[in-house]
Automatic annotation (TrEMBL):
Name this protein carries in UniProt: Uncharacterized protein
Primary localization class, coarse: membrane
InterPro entries in alphabetical order: Adhesion_GPCR_A, Cys-rich_flank_reg_C, GAIN_ADGRA2/3, GPCR_2_extracell_dom_sf, GPCR_2_extracellular_dom, Ig-like_dom, Ig-like_dom_sf, Ig-like_fold
Gene Ontology biological process terms, A to Z: cell surface receptor signaling pathway
Molecular-function annotations in GO: G protein-coupled receptor activity
Cellular component terms (Gene Ontology): glutamatergic synapse; plasma membrane; postsynaptic density
Organism: Synaphobranchus kaupii
Similarity section: Belongs to the G-protein coupled receptor 2 family. Adhesion G-protein coupled receptor (ADGR) subfamily.
Length: 479
């Protein structure tokens, strides 16, 4: 154990020493630096490797922070989103650059300038949609490129003209569209003896889904057949019920497969354009990351006339596709039942403002000591009330709810009991004792329940003795 500790300390010291000697300027949190010495033609060379993986980096740091003898730089699993012009200038010995699992969406022209010795570049699992040959200037010595796991669906012709030594290329993507726009790549790869790596399957069109790009023949890469959009969505997509005067933005987004893709809005089948008096504003289309196009439609001060079906239509050289949603505009004067407070023998219920034709529900009020009738069924008990088509409160039902008054609640329970010859006497005595204070009779239901119980008790009247009915009923106002 002691020996192991000592070994660790020594190993740590050695690493620090070698690090400080090879990377004197490396002061970036989360980076590790290692170096190897090589004898080459009786001359000592240092090969420095820098690993800054999972270091929460938002940006590539100044290349001058690294020793110019760095041969390997790993910046994977960070939060880098942009590669600026000359991001790595000065690292003229760099052979491997790993930028996988970042958030890179933009690579400026000349980003890799000065990396003449670079042989392996990993840009996989980023958000790259726009690609141009200028991004890859100076990478004449690159032999392996991984572009997999990005958001492009195609690669522009001539993209790899700066690569003179490329041997292997990976470019799988969830939306890779294997059509005539990728024919050039097959020809170029063949002419330049570039191997398309295994693990680069087509995603679209459906009949080529899952097939390796490398195994395709030129004639399979066609631009015929129906338009298939990897992405096409309308927000909101569900029917919207709005009040007159409201504002509602609608957003349509689709894959930007090629320059012929256009988005148009229509209302009940007729194309719409901006019309300020009607509160219709159709925004310009915006292309994001060269692979998605969005067009927004903003409806403001909505009038009844804007009810109906709103459609986003994608047109392209290969065909059209559309998606619709419905808007229902209600008059602000649409009939509704006013909010109302109802107090009855089940408690106090506050009914909210409710649209005509709608059944409103409220949960039953909880009462202390009230035992649920069916404890095994935990279903929430509710009262309901209908608002009719004219906006007047109509039928209502509180039967699921318990009586608010404890006296009524107990009488209700009495009334639910089975009365037979055995228990009639006892029940009669209990009822008599319970009801002997007239002041407690507060609800007409109390009288109804007592009458109901009495009727059933009277069937056993010959057995009921010595029960003195002292109760004097109050006269009940009939409502
Ligand atoms: C690398 O840096 C050292 C000094 O740190 C310098 O002497 C040398 O010329 C540099 N080499 C290159 C290729 O820039
Ligand atoms: C990139 O930077 C270099 C030198 O800093 C400059 O000469 C070149 O014009 C820049 N390129 C672009 C496209 O900005
Ligand atoms: C390019 O790679 C070859 C070996 O594949 C190497 O000899 C040459 O020095 C490299 N070029 C640069 C500029 O590093
Ligand atoms: C390329 O990147 C993808 C995604 O990170 C990965 O699955 C694949 O193994 C990589 N290919 C190579 C040869 O490194
Ligand atoms: C696509 O829509 C455009 C514009 O509405 C129309 O001119 C064209 O004929 C449509 N194409 C197909 C194949 O439906
Ligand atoms: C009367 O009802 C009670 C309670 O329901 C029961 O326990 C009793 O057995 C019944 N007696 C007769 C005679 O049915």
């Amino acid at each position: 154990m002691k020996l192991l500790n000592l070994f660790c300390v020594i190993a740590g010291l050695w690493r620090m020493l070698s690090a400080s000697r090879s990377c004197p300027d490396l002061v970036i949190d989360g980076c590790r630096c290692t170096s190897e010495r090589h004898m080459e033609l009786s001359r000592q060379t240092v090969r420095v490797k820098v690993v800054c993986s999972g270091a929460e980096l938002m940006d590539t740091f100044q290349p001058s922070f690294l020793p110019n003898t760095t041969v390997s730089l790993v910046l994977s699993h960070n939060k880098i989103s942009l590669l600026k012009n000359c991001s790595f200038l000065g690292l003229s010995y760099l052979e491997r650059l790993d930028l996988k699992n970042n958030l890179i969406s933009t690579i400026k022209p000349g980003a890799f300038r000065g990396l003449a010795a670079l042989r392996r570049l990993d840009l996989s699992n980023n958000r790259i949609g726009c690609l141009s040959p200028e991004m890859f200037e100076d990478l004449a010595n690159l032999s392996k490129l991984n572009l997999s796991g990005n958001i492009f669906s195609s690669l522009p012709e001539g993209l790899f003209t700066h690569f003179l030594s490329l041997q292997v290329l990976y470019f799988s993507s969830e939306s890779l569209y294997c059509d005539c726009h990728l024919q050039w790549l097959l020809l170029w790869a063949r002419a330049n003896a570039v191997r398309i790596g295994n693990g680069t399957p087509c995603a679209y069109p459906t009949h080529l889904h899952g097939l390796e790009f490398r195994s395709l023949r030129e004639h399979q890469l066609k631009c015929v057949g129906p338009l298939e959009l990897p992405l096409f969505q309308l927000i909101p997509s569900q029917r919207q019920v709005v009040f007159r005067g409201d504002r509602l933005p609608l957003q349509c987004t689709a894959s930007y497969l090629d320059e012929s893709v256009r988005l148009q809005w229509s209302h009940n089948g007729r194309p719409v354009s901006t019309h300020e008096q009607s509160g219709i504003l159709v925004e310009e289309s915006i292309v994001h990351d060269c692979c998605q196009v969005t067009r927004e439609l903003i409806l403001s001060n909505i009038d009844i006339g804007l009810s109906g079906h709103w459609t986003c239509l994608v047109t392209s050289s290969r065909g059209n596709s559309s998606q619709s949603m419905e808007i229902v505009v209600l008059e602000t004067s649409a009939p509704y039942c006013p909010a109302e407070r109802v107090t009855n023998n089940k408690g106090e219920y506050r009914w909210p403002r409710t649209l005509a034709g709608i059944l409103a529900f409220l949960p039953c009020l909880p009462h202390p000591f009230s035992t649920p009738q069916h404890p095994s069924v935990p279903r929430e008990k509710k009262a309901w009330r209908r608002c009719d088509r004219m906006g007047r409160w109509a039928e209502e039902d509180y039967t699921q709810c318990a009586y608010a008054n404890e006296f009524t609640r107990v009488l209700y329970q009495f009334s639910q009991m089975v009365i037979n010859a055995t228990n009639a006497q006892v029940l009669a005595q209990q009822l008599s004792a319970f009801t002997n204070r007239a002041a407690l009779f507060d609800d007409k239901m109390d009288v109804i329940f007592v009458t109901h119980i009495m009727e059933r008790l009277l069937r056993f009247v010959d057995r009921i003795q010595d029960v003195c009915w002292e109760t004097t009923y109050r006269t009940w106002p009939v409502t």
